[in-house]
Amino acid sequence: MFRHCVMFKWADDASDEAKAAVAAGLDELAKMDCVGSFKHGADAGLRDDNYDYVAVADFDSIAAYRTYATDPGHLEMIANVIRPAISSRVAVQYHYDG
Cα torsion for 79, 25, 36, 41, to the nearest 10°? Predict the structure, then answer.
């Protein structure tokens, strides 16, 4: 199995509507055939230095992840919905037994 984790910090001027649009867009990405499990949500707020939002997606293979990562709809959502709402992003991908 292959997992992709991405975390966002909201831009100072990100509206509640922009944040909701990110969540709605992630819900749509979760429906892609190449995606296994897909979870996302806001940070619990236990530490000030945490990122604000996380998405975790599981794939059967690196090839499935690459299909997701290069999908035109995914790239459009990043450009038009996510990027305008965030100030920074970090990600990691890794293999796991599952």
Answer: 110
Q: What is the CATH number of the domain that holds 20?
A: 3.30.70.100
Return the percentage of the chain with pLDDT > 90, whole number: 99
pTM: 0.94
Give the chain's largest Cα–Cα span.
40
Split into its structural domains, the chain has a count of 1
Q: Which residues contact 97 (CB under 8 A, 6 or more apart)?
A: 1
Q: Tens digit of pLDDT for each residue in 66-96?
A: 999 999 999 999 999 999 999 999 999 999 9
